[in-house]
Design goal:
Helix content of chain B: under 10%
CATH class of chain B: Mainly Beta
Number of helices of chain A: 0
Distance between the termini of chain A: 34 Å
Strand content of chain B: over 45%
Radius of gyration of chain A: 13 Å
Number of strands of chain B: 12
Largest interface: A-B, 26 and 24 residues
Number of strands of chain A: 11
Number of helices of chain B: 0
Oligomer: heterodimer
CATH topology of chain B: Immunoglobulin-like
Order of helices and strands of chain B: EEEEEEEEEEEE
Shape of chain A: globular
Largest sheet of chain B: 6 strands, mixed
Strand content of chain A: over 45%
Chain lengths: 114, 114
């Protein structure tokens, strides 16, 4: 019954590496979101996409990029990972507009950059 | 800039006492409003939502929230807190423009004294 799948639950990467975090949803949702969650800071929006090939910056896009070539897949890319990007990354998807009952979250990806 | 503010990082209440968690948003129009709860190591669970209509909304687990347009607030309340309510609570809003950006507050951690 998994609807939003994040490809990796736990990753350890070295500083300077290129990192791909993949998110796939099987509900034909137009909207997809990438957040990072840090203690005391809540969920901060990195990027979101409202259609294939369409993206908008969230509140903290610096150091990240995204790709949405297919409707079901939304990738978060760290071009050159840094230690301050160590965090839990959470993907979400929904129909527009996001109705609380139809916003689905992935299980999260814990990234450690050493 | 659009934002969601939860001014209380931590709140401690005694079991059986009443609870109010504050949420304010900054946006030109009325957004969709949500409250989520996250227990340690768990995902986000929707407590309640407001789209329009009656400004007092009821949610699960005995929670309610009141939308006050004049104060741009959507505070969460519970008349009698149970020890199992200890968790982190997030207010979230959807900006009702063409892209439906979904942003979260920084969260309030609730501690419950026996």
């Amino acid at each position: 019954d998994v609807k939003v799948t994040q490809s990796s639950r736990y990753l350890v990467k070295r500083t300077g590496e290129k990192v791909f975090l993949e998110c796939v949803q099987d509900m034909d949702h137009e909207n997809m979101f990438w957040y990072r969650q840090d203690p005391g800071l809540g969920l901060r929006l990195i990027y979101f996409s409202y259609d294939v090939k369409m993206k908008e910056k969230g509140d903290i896009p610096e150091g990240y990029s995204v790709s949405r070539e297919k409707k079901e897949r939304f990738s978060l890319i760290l071009e050159s990972a840094s230690t301050n990007q160590t965090s839990m990354y959470l993907c979400a998807s929904s129909f527009p507009p996001p109705d609380g009952n139809t916003i689905y979250f992935g299980e999260g990806s814990w990234l450690t950059v050493v | 800039a659009q934002s969601v503010t939860q001014p209380d990082i931590h709140i401690t209440v005694s079991e059986g006492a009443s609870l109010e968690l504050r949420c304010n948003y900054s946006y030109g129009a009325t957004p969709y409003l949500f409250w989520y709860v996250q227990s340690p190591g768990q995902g986000l669970q929707l407590l309640l939502k407001y789209f329009s209509g009656d400004t007092l909304v009821q949610g699960i687990k005995g929670f309610e929230a009141e939308f006050k347009r004049s104060q741009s607030s959507f505070n969460l309340r519970k008349p009698s807190v149970h020890w199992s309510d200890a968790a982190e609570y997030f207010c979230a809003v959807v900006m009702m423009d063409s892209s439906y950006k979904l942003i979260f507050g920084s969260g309030t951690r609730l501690l419950v004294r026996p």
